Amino acid sequence: MNPEDSKQKRHTLTDLPQQFRLVKVTQEDFDEWLSLALELWSEGSSEEMQESLTKSYQSPKEAGFLVKNEDGTAIAFMNLSLRYDYVPGATQSPVAYLEGIYVREPYRKQGVGSFLIRYAEQWALEQNCVQLASDALLENTVSYEFHTRVGFQEIERIVSFIKTINAE
Q1: Measured between alpha carbons, how far is residue 95 from residues 51, 54, 90, 111 in Å?
Q2: Crossing angle, helix 46-58 and helix 30-40, to 10 degrees?
Q3: 117-146 pLDDT tens trace
Q4: 152 and which of 26, 29, 132, 147 could share a cystine (Cβ 3.0–4.6 Å)?
């Protein structure tokens, strides 16, 4: 489904407020997408994020979407992918995966995030997936609350470890 197909199709998915519109990321939108991604994932460098988003943009198994306001400014984004590797709790492969979702603070609590999740569900179905998966860091309580509010179920909690070994 093309996010800009028709207003009728868009409104059958949700009730995204009319001052907003959903668009698939294009080359012209890349800098806004990058800026939003850096707001969400601020621990990385701009160069690393640009490289990651470029790979995502070029991949046939991934998609990025922006929500723009009436001025055409991006106020939210969502990155989706198809994962063929192990996804905790998944019953089939591939699994549609919510790689990232972010709504700028002034636009939260207006239905934008919920709309993006419903759109992600539709995207997943179009990719022949029956599940949508996601993750969040343990300390990210805002993300946890959002995920549970829009219908995700917690599958597991993990702490990852790594040890550097010396070849002597």
Answers
A1: 24, 22, 7, 25
A2: 120
A3: 999 999 999 999 999 999 999 999 999 999
A4: 147
